[in-house]
Design brief:
The structure holds two protein chains of two kinds. Chain A is an alpha/beta fold. Chain A has eleven helices and eight strands. Chain A has one domain: Alpha/Beta hydrolase fold, catalytic domain (Rossmann fold). Chain A has helices at 40-47, 72-85, 98-109, 130-137, 141-150, 168-177, 183-193, 197-203, 221-229, 246-249, 251-262, and strands at 2-5, 8-13, 25-29, 52-56, 91-96, 114-120, 208-213, 234-239. Chain A is globular. In chain B, helix 3 packs parallel to helix 14 (279-289), helix 4 (88-99) packs across helix 13 (260-273) and helix 17 (352-362) packs across helix 19 (414-429). Chain B folds into two domains: 9-288, 3-Layer(aba) Sandwich (Aspartate Aminotransferase, domain 2); 292-429, Aspartate Aminotransferase, domain 1 (Alpha-Beta Complex), CATH 3.90.1150. Chain B is built from 19 helices and twelve strands. By secondary structure, chain B is α/β, with parallel strands linked by helices. Classes of the chains: A alpha/beta, B alpha/beta. Chains A and B meet through helix 1, helix 5, helix 6 and helix 11 of A and helix 1, helix 3, strand 1 and helix 12 of B.
Chain lengths: 264, 431
C-alpha cells in the first residue's frame, strides 16, 4: 500500500490486503541497502495468518520516495509515522540488522505503540569497518561485495539455497545494484553512528526476541546476546547454520521463531 | 585491507548449489527421484502452497536435484536464480511466455538456431506474438524494429551458423533505452567463454544439452535471470507488475523485487506449461558442468588447430569463425570473447551440394547428427537439416549456402580430426 509520510510516498507491502483494525499488526523493517522483499516469506505468512502486515520500504529504498534518513532515530520516527498514517495504534515490530536498531528505537520512543520487538541479526554497537564504510562512501563495487560476502555464512558462497533455484549471492548483488548512489553509505553510517542503544534498552517495556546467526560475521551473535542480557523480558535464539541474512539462509527457523514469539 | 573474495569459476562449477546431503552425507549430488514431498502437517502444506515457506511440493515446480543445477548455473552466470527446463527450446518459450501474451512483439536476430527461428516466425505468431527479424550487426535495424508493443530483444551470443558475434553491450543499450530487456541464447559460449550479464544482457538461456552437459546423453535447458532489469520502472510488463488472479492476486514485482521474473516463470510457467526437467537429467547435466572449465579450453584449442588446417585447404572456400581476421566480427570477438569463440563453426567447400554429401559420408571420426557441443566431434549440413524450414532468402540472410557444413569440434586428438577432415575433403573434391 502507498501512504504519504513527510510529504513523500511511503510504501508498505501488505500481501495485497487492506489493514483490518480488528487484527493485530506486524511491521517488518529491512536492513541496510535492502527493502521489504527481504522478508518475502515471513511477511506473507503473517499476512495470511490473522495479522495485518506492513513490510515497509524505508525512504530512498524500494518503492518509497525521498532521501534516505540520516539516523536510526529518524528512521524510527518515520516507521512510527507510517503506523499513524495507516491508522494503526500499536504493532509488533520485526527488524533485521539496521532494521533491528530501528525496531529497538521504536519501542523506546513510543512504548505505547509497540507491543513486541523481534531483533534479527542485531549487534550493539553496530560498528562498520572503515574500509567497508569508505567503499560505500565512494559507491565502490567493493562495498557491494563486502555486504554480500560478509552478509552470508561461508556456505552462502557456494549456495544450497533453501529457496529452490535461487542463488543468495546473486540476489544480494542485484538488490544492491538497484540502489541509488549513496543509499548504502547512508545506512551503514547510520548503523555505525548509532549510540542510543543503552538508553533505548532501558526504556523498552515490551517483550523482545533476539534472533541471531551463529555464523554471522557482520553482527556477531555474542554482541546480540550481550544486548539481550541487558534487556528485561528478552529472550534469544541462535540459529547455528546461519549468517547475517537469516530470513534467506534459514527461512523456516526464522519464521518458526517469529511464530513462537508473535503467536500467530 | 584486502576485501572478501568470491569463489572462482572452477570451484563454483564443482560446488555451487550443493552442500553434502544433510540426510546421508553423500558428497555427490543425490538424485531425488520423487514426484512429490511429504508435508509435515496440514499447516506446512498450506504454507508451501501459498509461498510462505521455501521448499518442494511437486517436482514439476521444483526438485532438490534440479535445484542444485539451477543454483549452480545462476552462480556461474552471476544471476539471481535459474529455472531448468525440459530443453533449450522450453527455456526460450518459458522466457517469452512469462513476459508477454497475444498482441506482443519481439525483435530478434535473424541469425538463430532453426528451431528458435521457427518458434518465433511461425508458432508464436499463431498465438498472437509477432517477431521482427533483424541483422544482428545492424544497430539501426534493432532500434527501428522496436514498436510500442515490443516486449523483448533476443539474439544468440554466437549466431547460428555464421557465428555472428552479438554486440551485447550495444544491443542491450538499445533495449534499455526502450525500457526493454535483452535475452540471449548463450549455448555456444557457455559462462566459461562469456558472461552475458556482465555485458548488459538481462536474461540468459542455454540448451544445456550442448557444452554444459558435454556428453550428449541428456536434453535440457536453463533460463537464468540477472535480477537487474527493473520491471516496475519499465511499465511494460503487466505479467510481473499487476495482480495475477492465477496466484492470489500476487504482484510478482511488488512481492519479490529482483526475483519477480523467476517467481512468475516457476509459479505459472512450470505449473501450467509443465516443461520441467527430470531429476536424473539434472544429475547428468551436473556431471558435465563439473568439468566445463576443463573441457572448454580443449574444445577451443582443438578448434583452432582444425581451422588452421582448413584455412590452407584448396577445397575450402570460406570459414566463418570470428577469431579469423576476415570474419566481420573479428574485433568484436576479441573484445567480448577473449577466451575464444567456441568450438562450433561453419565452412563452405567448393562443389556445392554433391561435394557436401561426399564430404559428410566420407567422415569416420566426426559423427553426422543434429547436435553440437558434444565431447565427440560432430558434423551436419544445415541447409538440409537444422535450417531446412527456412526460406532461401532467410538462409541467405543467415549466411547459409548449399555448400555450408557445420562442425562441432570435440575433445579427440586434434591430429585424428584433421586426418578425418583431410580424407573427407579429398572425397569431396572427387564428387
Amino acid at each position: 500500500m502507498d501512504l504519504v509520510v513527510d510529504g513523500k510516498k511511503a510504501f508498505a507491502y501488505t500481501a495485497a490486503r487492506e489493514p483490518d483494525p480488528a487484527k493485530p499488526t506486524v511491521v517488518f523493517v529491512h536492513g541496510a541497502g535492502l527493502d521489504h522483499s527481504s522478508f518475502l516469506l515471513q511477511s506473507r505468512y503473517f499476512a495470511y495468518h490473522g495479522r495485518n502486515v506492513l513490510a515497509v520500504d524505508l525512504p530512498g529504498h524500494g518503492r518509497s520516495e525521498g532521501a534516505p534518513l540520516p539516523s536510526i532515530e529518524r528512521m524510527a520516527q518515520w516507521v512510527l509515522a507510517v503506523l499513524k498514517e495507516a491508522s494503526i495504534a500499536s504493532a509488533s515490530v520485526v527488524g533485521h540488522s539496521m532494521g533491528s536498531l530501528i525496531a529497538l528505537e521504536c519501542a523506546a520512543q513510543a512504548p505505547a505503540a509497540v507491543e513486541r520487538i523481534a531483533l534479527i541479526g542485531v549487534a550493539y554497537p553496530m560498528k562498520v569497518g572503515e574500509a567497508f564504510l569508505e567503499a560505500a562512501r565512494r559507491d565502490d563495487r567493493a562495498a557491494f561485495d563486502m555486504e554480500t560476502i560478509w552478509g552470508h555464512s561461508p556456505q552462502g558462497a557456494l549456495g544450497a539455497n533453501p529457496n529452490p533455484g535461487m542463488w543468495m549471492y546473486g540476489d544480494a548483488l542485484a538488490r544492491l545494484e538497484r540502489l541509488a548512489p549513496g543509499v548504502l553509505y547512508n545506512d551503514l553510517r547510520a548503523c555505525n553512528d548509532y549510540s542510543g542503544g543503552e538508553a533505548a534498552v532501558a526504556r523498552v517495556q515490551c517483550p523482545a526476541l533476539f534472533l541471531l546467526g551463529r555464523r554471522d560475521v557482520m553482527t556477531p551473535a555474542k554482541s546480540g546476546l550481550a544486548l539481550c542480557a541487558a534487556m528485561r523480558q528478552a529472550r534469544s535464539l541462535v540459529v547455528e547454520s546461519s549468517g547475517h541474512m537469516l530470513m534467506a539462509e534459514a527461512p523456516d527457523a526464522t519464521l518458526d521463531a517469529l511464530i513462537g514469539f508473535l503467536g500467530a | 585491507m584486502a576485501g572478501p573474495k568470491y569463489p572462482g569459476f572452477d570451484t563454483l562449477a564443482l560446488h555451487a548449489g550443493q552442500s553434502p546431503d544433510p540426510a546421508t552425507g553423500a558428497r555427490a549430488v543425490p538424485v531425488y527421484q520423487t514426484t512429490s514431498y511429504v508435508f509435515r502437517d496440514t499447516e506446512h502444506a498450506a504454507s508451501l502452497f501459498n509461498m510462505e515457506r521455501a521448499g518442494h511440493v511437486y517436482s514439476r515446480i521444483s526438485n532438490p536435484t534440479v535445484a542444485v543445477l539451477e543454483e549452480r548455473m545462476a552462480a556461474l552466470e552471476g544471476g539471481v536464480g535459474a529455472i531448468a527446463t525440459a530443453s533449450g527450446q522450453a527455456a526460450l518459450h518459458l522466457a517469452i511466455a512469462t513476459l508477454m501474451g497475444a498482441g506482443s512483439h519481439v525483435v530478434a536476430s535473424g541469425s538463430l538456431y532453426g528451431g528458435s527461428h521457427n518458434l518465433l516466425a511461425y508458432t508464436l505468431k499463431r498465438f498472437g506474438i509477432e517477431t521482427t527479424f533483424v541483422s544482428p550487426r545492424d544497430r539501426a535495424a534493432w532500434k527501428n524494429a522496436i514498436r510500442p508493443n515490443t516486449r523483448l530483444l533476443f539474439g544468440e551470443t554466437l549466431g547460428n551458423p555464421g557465428l555472428d558475434v552479438l554486440d551485447i553491450p550495444a544491443v542491450a543499450g538499445i533495449a534499455h533505452e526502450a525500457r526493454l530487456p535483452l535475452l540471449v541464447d548463450s549455448t555456444f559460449t557457455t559462462p566459461w567463454l562469456m558472461k552475458p550479464f556482465e555485458l548488459g544482457a538481462d536474461l540468459v538461456y542455454h540448451s544445456a544439452t550442448k557444452f554444459l552437459g558435454g556428453h550428449g546423453v541428456a536434453i535440457g535447458g536453463v533460463l537464468v535471470d540477472s535480477g537487474r532489469f527493473d520491471w516496475e520502472a519499465s511499465g511494460k510488463f503487466e505479467t510481473l507488475t499487476a495482480p495475477y488472479a492465477g496466484f492470489h492476486d500476487m504482484d510478482f514485482e511488488e512481492e519479490s523485487g529482483t526475483r519477480a521474473f523467476l517467481l512468475r516463470a516457476r509459479r505459472e510457467g512450470l505449473r501450467d506449461f509443465g516443461a520441467c526437467m527430470a531429476p536424473m537429467v539434472a544429475f547428468q547435466l551436473l556431471q558435465g558442468i563439473e568439468t566445463l572449465h576443463l573441457r572448454m579450453p580443449r574444445h577451443v584449442e582443438n578448434t583452432r588447430k582444425v581451422i588452421g588446417f582448413l584455412k590452407g585447404h584448396p577445397q575450402v572456400e570460406s570459414i566463418a569463425y570470428p577469431e579469423l581476421p576476415e570474419h566481420p566480427d573479428h574485433e568484436l570477438c576479441r573484445r567480448l570473447l577473449p577466451k575464444g569463440a567456441g568450438a562450433v563453426f561453419s565452412f563452405s567447400m567448393k562443389g556445392g551440394r554433391p561435394a557436401g554429401k561426399a564430404f559428410i559420408e566420407a567422415l569416420r571420426v566426426f559423427s553426422h547428427l543434429a547436435n553440437v557441443g558434444d565431447a565427440k566431434s560432430l558434423v551436419i549440413h544445415p541447409a538440409t537439416t537444422t535450417h531446412y524450414r527456412m526460406s532461401d532468402e532467410d538462409l541467405k540472410k543467415a549466411g547459409i549456402t548449399a555448400g555450408t557444413v557445420r562442425l562441432s569440434i570435440g575433445l579427440e586428438e586434434a591430429g585424428d580430426l584433421i586426418d578425418d577432415l583431410d580424407r573427407a575433403l579429398k572425397a569431396a573434391s572427387r564428387a
